[in-house]
Amino acid sequence: MAAIYSGIYLKLKSAKTSWEDKLKLARFAWISHQCFLPNKEQVLLDWVSHTLVSNYNKKLELDDEVVEKLWTYLDNVIHSRRLQDLLKSGKTIGLSFSIAQVINERLSEACSQKTQQNIGTVLNCSSGILSTPSLCIIYTAKCELLVDLLSKLCKLACQQLSSDDAVGCQLFSVLQLTFAQYLLIQRQQTNPNRVFGQVTGHLLQPCLLLRHLLTVRSWTQADDNHVRQHLSREIRNQIETLLQAGLFQAELFSSYKEELLPEQEVQEKKKGAFKSLLLPVNTVQTNLGSDFCEPALHGAVVAGSVSLLYKLFLDSYCKAENHLVCFHMFSRLFGCLRLSDLQQGGREDMLSPVDWSTELLALEQLLSLVLSSDIYNVASDRIRHKEVQFGFYRKLAQMLLTHSQASIPAWFRCLKLLISLNHLIVDPDLDDLVSSAWIDAEASEPRTKKPQEILINTVFQTYSKLRQFPRLFEEVLTVICRPAVDELRPPIFSAGLTVKLRECLLELPPNQILDILCLFVEKCQTLIIPAVEGSTDMALKLMAVCSVLHAFLFNMRSIDDVTPSPVVLRTQNLLAKIQKGIIQPLMELLQAPRREEEKSDLWLRKASDTTLLLFYTWVEVDTLFGVSCSKYVSPTAEIGGAVTEPTARQGHFSISAFLPGLREQSWERVMEIANSFASPSKYCLELLTLQKMKMILMQAKADLQALQHAAAFILESGRSTMSRGESEPWDGDISVISDLTYPTAHWHLVVSNLTILLPYISLEDVEYVANVLLETLMLAKAQEAAMDQESSISTEKISLGLMHSSFLPEMKILHCTFLTRLIIKFSAVLPTATRDPVDLPLQQLFASNIPWHEEILAPCKTLDLLEVPSENKLLKDELSLSWKTLEKVAQCIVLLAKSGCPVTLKESQLESCLGLLDIFSLLKLDSFLPSDCTRCFLVLLSLLANTRASVSCSKLLLLKFLSTCLHLLRCLQAGRNANSVFKVLHASDVLEAVMTSQFTASKFFSDVLTVPLWAQYLQEFQAFLEDFLQMVIERRQSVRLNLEKFISFLVSCKPDTGAAKSKDWKNWNPAAEQLLLTTFTTLCHVVTLYLQQLPEKKLHSADVLSALLEPVVLQMVRTVEHGLQSNTPNQLLPVAFIPSVTTLLKADLSHPVRRGWQKEPSGFLEQPRIKLYQEFYSQILRELPCAGHNLQFLQPALQFLTVFCSVPELYPGKETAVMVGFAIKKLLSGPAITTQVIQSMEMELTEVLVQLLGNCSVEEFYAIMRLVLQGLELKNVWQQKAKMQTKEACQDPSLISIIVVPILETVAALLRQGEGVLVNPHHVSLAFSILLTIPLDHLKLEDYSGVFLGVHEVLFSIVQCHPKVLLKAAPSFLNSFHRLVVSVMHEGRQKGDRGNTDEFEVILQCAHLVERMYTHIAAEMENFTVFSAFMVAQYVTELQKVTLHPAVKTHLTEGIYHILDLCIERDIKFLNASLPAGVREVFKDLYNDYNHYHKAKKQGEEKYTA
Q: Among candidates 1390, 1441, 1387, which has minimal Cα distance to 1410?
């Protein structure tokens, strides 16, 4: 033994032994049980540690390879199972402090060399040391080493994040572990100054840089997933915790206060206090200002850090008495930003746009914290602190407005926050704000448009509440009248701002609004109009001023009979001023004769736009006021009836009558300028024309000719631009209409006013409107994805809106014409080159010589009474002509289908047809006349029966096309005019044409029978047949004759790849076979249902129909047998087979009941048929467990088993119901079965089990129940993800609603059974173990709500039903309940603007439940008095960490007041003495409020209680 010992030890120490041999000996010594060394493990650890230390101290010179092997050896020893077992057994083994220094030095080398190669082993060693308590002492006992390690690891992590290399997991795992260890040590340290020094001296800079890099990194797929999703977030949280505890401890507040408040220092000296030497703010500023990273990153890191530091500062120190300190901290941190240099006169160009964005974002976050923490009290700042805060914010606002950054969203948000603090901060610079943030701001991008609108809305609301709206718009007018920065300013009122303006105007006194309008009118008259001729700048200013007038007049509250007379008089005078002082001078300017080249001048175009916009506004408002207010007298009243007298001269409709003194010839010049461009002028002309139509319609006797001219003028105005097909979205602002937005505006006007226009336009114009509607809808289908994201109005959206509205069906002439245009478009898509027109049925459906619209137009015609009989006869002749045409087309379709000569469609044509069918589906088919319904049916039937796809077409596209046609045919059949089809077609002909075409098409589908589209197509086909046959039977359309013809056709069919009719089974086509089986099944199903509903007196009819079905059943059996024989063994049964066999079985089982036969297997079923069902049953049982989540197979399969299991005699051989139960269990335990799948087939499963258990023996019942109980495991859920097999359900958020919530509901239900059922108290206390493992944080709100309610119900059930257990397990109960309180505080903390009120209601409900539980504990459980102080301490400790939303705080405070009722004086003294300083302050506030509000109220109630 001694030889072994001395030999190994000497060799390890000997200089003669090679390092390779030493390492081999060391490995052998560690793992070998034959090597006996006293304290062997410690000796070997000391040897390797000493060797590594000696190498780094230069006492040994080793090769790099040997050093790496030594590190590997140390790593293997630290992570070895042997060492862990020894430590667990209590053996003392340790490392020297020098190895920690060596690890730190090695990491320091890696930092300086900026390479992370060959440090993986060192990181592994440090990870092993930190995760092993007895080894970790080398760091925890010397905190400086741990701080140094953490600093080096942060720097390495920053290097890795800054490089282009993929981020690995090892370094960040060690970093996270090191953070955890340091935070543990940090909490245990008692000297806050020492901790502050450690953090600021070594950790602050690397931590801030690391946090920034983790936040801004663009993660890639190459980066480690665990780092990306978990470690990065966890490390950021640890950094925040470290900084909070290191920089802002409660004991350091006095130092911050001394440094930040100079006057405080003087006061303290007077009292003889000793001044602290610590300057924490200066230290933090110095750290932020020094060059601790690359210059390109420094500004961004500081900008991202100041808001974090300020947030942590506020979390620690923000109280009412400390608000001034908090402000000074804000000003000092703002000084760290580069923005602060601009206040000192720095150059703007030193910041790039990216830098501006970063700096402004930081400023926004700082200001947001100031606002949310309520630091700035206007009165207190003015009275006590000489407006120190106000002065700072003023300088800030001046700097922001001097250096305008309208392209950056944060700039607008900063200004908005300053206004929210105090509007007086920006009030002196209101003109600059209006100019740079609104009138002259280029904020066209959506990301800047929204914050700009929010800012201007804040300005609106502020000055509206202050009743200073006139002053605001005085500044607006001043800015408008300044020389423009560029030629074309953005529009003043966007759609969003117009809405906000309207809200403010409705709240303002009318006189203030009139003041603003008078101001604008006066400025327009005196300054702009005299100088507008020839001046583009003045013309643009005129447009801006008039757009404001338009916005105000259109959005202010209308005057009415209750409006005070002075207001009415002022309004009347204002409109007179607008007419005489602005509109008339501008009209005179436009009437002046001009040369042709002058007519295109920009100033003239803008003057025209402005004039007609204001003219239209004036007419609209004047008319409205005249209607709504009897006291109002229009300025045009003196001309008497001139306004109402319609004029229609020289082939166009005149609007000149609106304006007194405007001659017709002069008006024509105005119209000539307006119509020369697609501009606001042209659009305003249309609006004026429409206004004139409304006024004519209001007269007792309307001028029909004038109305017709007006309607034609409006449509003709936009016809040329609409025909180009080029348009852009429009935001609704008339002043910004351009060449590309004019078509949208024009179409919006036409569609919005169709009810007015339609009665007065010609049939050609109706066709034009229908055509535009169709063209825009086709464009909408092509651009559907892009349209969803567009918020403005577009022609496509307008047309879709009309199609979805209830108005279109009411406009019967347009509805009918649109159908005609749609048929024309279908016809244009189909190839016509080589066909005789007689063979093209669609072309006959829109023939111009057929009176398709006569039924609609006839009631509108004004007929002479003497001519009524002859006219009626003419109408009947025309109607009969249209029906004759329809009959002719129907016969043509049937003949073409029978002849087998369909039109061949290319893929592009098929896609076009599908697009048109989508539009067809938007029509309200029930609103059509019978003839139009028939036209629709014939179009769809022709597409189905007379077309086929070319060989190169996509099969899935063809399936979609056929499914759509069948679906639309079903919709028509469900309508009220479904019978009209039978005027022109026999039902059997329709069915035969459809079947023939589908058999022909099916030869394409043999290789797509497993895709979902095929199953969907079969469903549509089956639904069409079912609905059509039911309609034939229910409406008695020659039922027997039609069924005979159809059945005879079906019986003659064989599903081969050739024609539909065949005499053998060669060239078997499985697709046609499924179609045939679906047809047989549907026919049997419909007829059987009909037979069951027949009364007894009609049994003869039943016998006839039953006889008709017999050949169908025989053919069906043969098809099923052949299909089963030809089915591939490893493939699921085709979808169509299962319903067919189920229908056959149902028919066979119902047949003997009808005949009164005996229920013996041999008596009611033929033996070959029994064999078929048994084979099918066996096949189903084999395939059921393999079906996965294929519901299209599972649902019909379970339906078959339901019918089969209802007759136990059918089971083959010795099989029993247990086999079915086993197959179902195997299916449900499969990996593909999810909760959603089970829910989808829940009804079918229930029906199978009902039949199974209702028709089995007692022994079979017990066997099935055993299977069910064995299956009560969550295996299928656990196996949805392999990695979850070893995890608890609570650790995976996706399982919260699936497992955790149902478990809680079950536990609560069991507990509510009471002590009579749950006798053993231990079983009740197990519930607490469940509750303590359930997560209540980092959950989605819907999951949180379910878990919270579940935990609360469990606790409440224990309180109500198990009081004895509760007394013994009170600590467990309080811990579980406290977790609920903490979670509500976390979810209910103040988060600024809460967007979703529904979500907040959930939090409030949870807070109310906590209040209820507190109240119940206080009222019902006297024995809990001993725990009352403990509960209050828990509550205030958590309350100190968060700022609660007031509504949540109200509930929780009311609840804790009831617990305070239980506290005696001794408890209050104990809490005041034992709580930490910060928590004690929170408790004092709570207790003072309790005494002031709750206790006083309670004593008052007790005083008057008997």
A: 1387
Give, as one character, the DSSP assignment of residue 59.
Answer: S
Q: Which residues pair with 903 in a beta bridge?
A: 947
Least confident of 729-738, 1015-1024, 1282-1291: 1282-1291
Residue 1501 has pLDDT above 60, yes or no: no
Q: Are 612 and 679 in contact (CB under 8 A)?
A: no
| Residues 6 or more apart whose Cβ sits within 8 Å of residue 594 | 604
The pLDDT score that the predictor gives to residue 1033 is 83
Look at the block and give the residue holding tokens 């007790």.
Answer: 1502
823 pLDDT more than 70: yes
Distance, in Å, from the CA atom of 372 to the CA atom of 517, rounded to the nearest integer, reads 38
- Which residues make beta-bridge pairs with 653? 648
Residue 1037: pLDDT band by 50, 70, 90 thresholds?
low
pTM of the entire structure? 0.75
Element spanning 659, H or E:
none
Q: Which two tokens stand for residue 644?
A: 């109402």
The tokens describing 995, both together, are 């079947």
CB 738 within 8 A of CB 703: no
Which of 980, 974, 990 minimizes the C-alpha distance to 941?
A: 990
* Closest of 656, 758, 770 to residue 712, by C-alpha: 758
| Residue 1498 pLDDT | 58
Output the average pLDDT for the chain.
Answer: 83
Matching residue, tokens 């760091």: 139
* 3-class DSSP string for 191-221: CHHHHHHHHHHHHHHHHHHHHHHHHHCCCCC
Strand segments, DSSP code E, in 1338-1432 are none
What DSSP string runs through 1117-1154?
A: HHHHHHHHHHS-TTSPPPTTHHHHHHHHHHHHHHHHHH
CA 267 – CA 252 distance, rounded (Å)? 19
831 contacts: CB under 8 Å, gap ≥ 6: 903, 904, 905, 909
CA–CA distance, 351 with 357 (Å, rounded to integer) = 10
- Which string of DSSP letters, residue by residue, matches 1055-1114? -BSS-SB-SS--SB-HHHHHHHHHHHHHHHHHHHHHHHHS-GGGHHHHHHHHHHHHHHHH
Comparing 192-196, 262-266, 548-552, 1268-1272, the range with the smallest average pLDDT is 262-266
Distance separating alpha carbons of residues 976 and 972, to the nearest angstrom:
8
- Looking at residue 428, its amino acid is P
CB 1453 within 8 A of CB 1486: yes
Q: Kindly state the helix (H) or strand (E) to which residue 358 belongs, with its residue range.
A: helix 353-372
Q: CB atoms < 10 A from the CB of 1347, how many?
A: 22
Closest among 732, 733, 734, 737 to 797, alpha carbons compared: 732
Q: To which residue do tokens 């083959």 refer?
A: 1212
- pLDDT 10s digits, 1234-1269: 878 888 888 888 888 888 888 888 888 878 777 766
Q: Identify which of 301, 302, 304 has the alpha carbon closest to the alpha carbon of residue 336.
A: 302
Residues 6+ apart with CB under 8 A from 310: 329, 330, 333, 365, 366, 369
Sign of the alpha-carbon torsion through 830, 836, 837, 838: negative
Identity of residue 1295: L
Report percent pLDDT > 70 for the chain.
Answer: 86
Residue 1389, strand partner residues: 1444
The strand pair at 648-649 and 652-653 is best described as antiparallel
Whole-Å CA distances, 236 to 196, 210, 1420: 19, 8, 45
Q: Nearest CA to 938 among 975, 903, 980?
A: 980
Contact indicator for 212, 304 with CB cutoff of 8 Å: yes
pLDDT, greater one: 1099 or 68: 68
pLDDT tens profile 1463-1485: 888 888 888 888 887 788 888 88
Contact 464, 504 (CB under 8 A): yes
Tokens, residue 696: 């004519």
